[in-house]
Every structure is written in C-alpha cells, then in structure tokens.
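Standup notes
- HV: blocked on the assembly model, inputs below
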Amino acid sequence: MTATIQRCSQFTRAIATPTDPFITEHGERLDHAKLAFETWGTLSSRRDNAILLIHALTGDSHAASHQADDVPGWFEGMIGPGKALDTDRFHVICTNLLGGCSGSTGPRSIDPRTGQRYNLAFPMLTVRDLVRAQIRLLDRLGISRLHAVVGGSLGGMQALEFAAMYPERVGRIVPIGSSAYFSPQGIAYNEVQRRAILMDPNFRGGEYDDEQGPDQGLAVARMLGMITYQSDELMKSRFGRSTDARYHEWPEFQKRFDIEGYLHYQGDKLVRRFDANSYLYLTRAMDSHDIGWKRGGVEEGLRLIDAPTLGIGISSDILFPRSYTIEFVDHLRKLGVDAHYQELDSPHGHDAFLVDFDQLNERMGDFIAR
Amino acid sequence: MTATIQRCSQFTRAIATPTDPFITEHGERLDHAKLAFETWGTLSSRRDNAILLIHALTGDSHAASHQADDVPGWFEGMIGPGKALDTDRFHVICTNLLGGCSGSTGPRSIDPRTGQRYNLAFPMLTVRDLVRAQIRLLDRLGISRLHAVVGGSLGGMQALEFAAMYPERVGRIVPIGSSAYFSPQGIAYNEVQRRAILMDPNFRGGEYDDEQGPDQGLAVARMLGMITYQSDELMKSRFGRSTDARYHEWPEFQKRFDIEGYLHYQGDKLVRRFDANSYLYLTRAMDSHDIGWKRGGVEEGLRLIDAPTLGIGISSDILFPRSYTIEFVDHLRKLGVDAHYQELDSPHGHDAFLVDFDQLNERMGDFIAR
C-alpha cells in the first residue's frame, strides 16, 4: 500500500441495450443508457471491498481528485488513505446518476430513435430507478456485494432504498442528511425551483437551444436551493446585513445586500455546470422518495432493510431536519436492525456533509471500517 | 356599549401634498400620497384610546368585518367586544401601507407629474418610511398618542420602529412574529421571490399591462412565501405525500403532489388580489428593517424604545424564528424596559398570528388592557 490514491480513472459503461432495456418504475423504457463513473482504490481479487458513494442533486462522479483529474471533488476530504473511505482498503465507486448531465444518460442525451435530444420525452425517474441503474452497473462490473453504500441528501435516499431493494448486496449503509421519505416541505421547495425553470421564456418546453437555455430560471432555482442547503446562522456570520457585495452581475432592485450577491453568484455558477432538464428530473426523483411507497407504508418499507445502518443528521439542516434521520434510525432499531444515529454539529446546514469532513470522518470511520 | 362593533368605516386621507411632501428615508419625494384606512370602535373625546394595527406584506386595511363591509378581515378574531382589541374600549385604526395596492398610494398609482403609473419610478421605501406615513395620518386625525401599536411580521417591524422613532407617541407595543432586524435568510427568501417576478416576460421592467401582468412570477413568489409562512409539521398533517390534488390549473411536471396543487392555488389566489410592483417594494421594505441602522447598532436602536413591549414569538416560525423575538425582548429588558415574551405554541408557522386567535387573545389581552 502506498500513501497515494491508486487506480483512479473515469469510465463510462452501458447499462441498457435494446436487448436488455432499462424499464423505469413507471413502466417507461430506455433502450440505450450509460453511466459515467470514477473509482478510487483497488478492487480486491474477491471483489468484496467496493463502496458505492452516491452524489446529491447537482453532484457528479468526481467525488475526489485522482491521477487522471487532479481537480478536488465534492467528497475530497473523505476519500483517500486513512480517511473514512480508505483507499488503502476499499475500492470506492461513484457514478453520475441516471438523468444527470455529467457523462451519464439524461434528458439532454440524444435519443437514438429520433436522433434528437430526449428533453421532456425522457422517462420520469424515481429514486428506485436511480438505484437500479447503479445495480446494473455493479452487475456489469462483477460486483455482487458492496461493503457499503454511502450518500448524502438524494444520495442518502438511495442508500436507504438500496438496502431495502437489495438487502443481500450491501454490508452497511450510511445515509447522511436524508430521510425515509421526502417531506412535503421539501417537495414544495423543489416545486418552486422547477417553476422558476419552467417559466423562463428560454425553456421552450424543455427544447431549449444549447446556446441559450433557461439560465435565469435555473439560476433562480439554485438560489432557492442554496438557501435550503445553508442556515440562517451561517448567513449571519458570513454576510449579516452587509451591503458591500462584490458580485454585480444581476441588476439590483433598489440596493443589494451581500447575501443577494452571493445567491446570484451561486446561481450563475450552477448554470455553467448543470443542465435545466436534469434539474427538473432529479428534483422530481427526490420528491418520489418514500421507502414505504407500494410497500404498505414506511414501517413496512424499513422492514426490508437488514444492513447495519449509520444515519447521520445535521444539527442545522433545514431541508432534512435531523428529526427525519432520528425517525428512521429509531424505526430500524425497533425492527431489530443494528442502527445508529450520529450528528454533525455544524452551522453549515444541509451542506455540512460537503464541508465538515473532519467531523464526518470521525462519525463514519469506525462504522465503515468494522 | 353594545355587543356589536361600532363606528366602522373605510376612509382615505392625503398624507402628502406639494406644500407638505413626503420625503423618504433615502431622500426621494412624493408630492401626493394618501393612505386608505379602516376603523373599529369609537375614538374617545380625549382621543387617547386609539390602537394602531399594522398589516403584514400582502395585507390591507380590512382587518375585520364592520357595518360597511361584512367580509371577515385578516385579524377578524382579534377585534371586537371582549377581544384583545376590544372595540368597547378602544378605537382601532388599520391603514393600507404606503406602497401597497389596496387604496393607498403605491407604485401602480398615477404619478400626477406624468399622468402615468409610477411603477419602478416610485421611491424606494423602508420600514421607517412606512411608519412615518402612518404618523402623518395620525397627525391629520388629531391623534397625538396611541394606546398601543400592534402588528405581525412586517407589521411587527413597524411596531418596533414606531416605538423607537416616536417614543412619546405610544403607550405600548406588541410586535408578533418579528425581529429587531430582518435576517439575511429572510432577505434571501425575499430576493428569490423578487427574481421570480422580475424574470416574468410580462413584467416589462414594471411597466406591465393592467390586463396582463407578471402573474406567473408573482404566483411563484407567493408559492415560496407560503412555504416560509407555514411549517413542515403543518404540511405533513394537511397534505403529507398525497397525490389527490384537486387543483389542476398549473400543468404538472410528471405527476403532482397535493402540496404542489395547494401552492399553485395560493399563488393564483394572490395574483387576483395583489400587485407585483407592490410586492417588490414591500419585500424590499422588509429587507430594510434594522432597528440599529444609522443608530450605531441594534442595542443603540433598542435604547430609543421605552414603551412597554410584548414580543410574541411563534414556536414553529421558520421565517422569523422565535429566537429573534426572544433576542430583542431580552435586550429591552436589560435596558430597563418593561418587556415581556409570550409564545404561540402552534404548528401554523409564521401565519399563526393570522390563525391562532384564541391563543393570541389570551397572550395579548391583559397587556393591551392594562
């Protein structure tokens, strides 16, 4: 073993073909689909040391830097020798989600049947679809059982669903800042974000130009998203009521507070790296999350899980209040599952799982390693 | 005294004329301005029993039904014989705020200089401007001192400002669901709402047609507003994750949860009664709220207040967390003010002050009466 991350690369793999199509939970069909993914650390000869890491709404497969791409990733502080996702021991796999826009098949992909982009003809996706797409990838990689599934937010939803759908294929799960079912308030926030995109005149029913998409709508959606990912406490300490904002891309409406310039900046930043149709599809996938759906309720859904579970809540999370994590951990424990609750004590809100890596390593390390 | 509300009517009064213009805090000038208002109960011969009630963002002067208008008002359960705002004892006055769209001068009023609507040429308004407009009305009504000033949300901000600006003119204040300064998170929510309006192609820089305004943008703004006025707890009990929504005016994006139909309904409802430019101006006025601005900080601002103060927080309020009310009550008490904190224990979120009238009567009654 060395002190550097090994065997790191970016791959793409077909997960659906005309002879083996992907049928979504709602019965729609994809004859062609691929997932982009990256890996860190070496897969053992017994193929039993793989950890599936799953990204959140606007994430991608680039969870950490590696030899082929030294740009830091969204989980940079968690992947590497001696870290919770220890590349000296584990083979970490992170895909770009089906429906995404960073290498995997999504609504802006070309539909081979028409030679045009799918756009809104792309099938509706649920959290269960996102999990099944990744299972298909694991099948093709010859990985029948994972050491662990780890994810935050939308990724945490999938970790729970993975354990419910494929109990025999996962050794433990770590859902962070997530829930057994998405809250109505969360659906409400997502819906407002979708409406900002849908009302942008450049949206054109999803058939927008490559050169001129619904940038304003997507940026406004992101601004609202950012509020829900952070906390008032954080905004108070970072911006307070100051009006020195250095970001002036958006025309002001009667002065401008720093917090506004910050939101504009974050909105514009997302537009440069994310697609509006993917945003619509993946927020709707979040909304679909309900471990009890078509299973007779949440408790019956949780009953399908037997993997040891570490639910991690975030003290200042307003999008997934920690009570939701505590709720499913308590439920699982009552059902006899080896379930634990840990908390990130942080002002960073929902985003804490992308920021407070020291705490997260400490909370997760032993559970992953054991 | 009788058991019915007395002397109730709707009036309009000029508060600015070319010889006595209204100069805003930012130095802009209105040569013509009027406020619409309604009253309940009889003004005493000593003119010492008046209570100024102040509405929130999209409110109006119609706080309760009366002989001239039997439609219930937004504070219906609080005004009348035996209620906290006891019309057997008090003369209650409620104006439509300057900048509003329900009878008072606002951005959609005709600018006499041009014969056209002001629209975005209307001066920027601050909470202090809204208070000074009402002081001008009280001057014209010959009311030199109020028994009390009562308001929730934006109205509560004004109650605090009133006490700081005119300590000799108010006997006590009751700010409900409010704060000594608006939070950066609150500004952020307001900014996203404004952006939804500004990006609507029908907005046309504020010069929209009377027949075709930025309805979609205003509705989306309202949807977000409604989320912040309520609580996840309430949404869970009212809608949960049900999909039986009866409101189908907005085309769905891949199914529809009830909470979404509810937001669409609330958005459309606001569009029928409220103006987009007023929404922009009054959200910006909210943002301006800082009792310490140009006064050397919050503590120095609060030092101007000597009126007995009853700050009422709401247990489930996410827009004005109760900690903000507790904060200014504690401050005032340290400064020697007769200040008290009471709480509405309610799942109704910020809107509790428009819903939980039994609790509110109980919390306020003695303080107002004494």
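- HV (later): unblocked. The domain at 186-281 of chain A is CATH 1.10.1740.110 (Rna Polymerase Sigma Factor; Chain: A). Chain A touches chain B through 50 residues (CB under 8 Å).
- Next: hand off to the docking folks.
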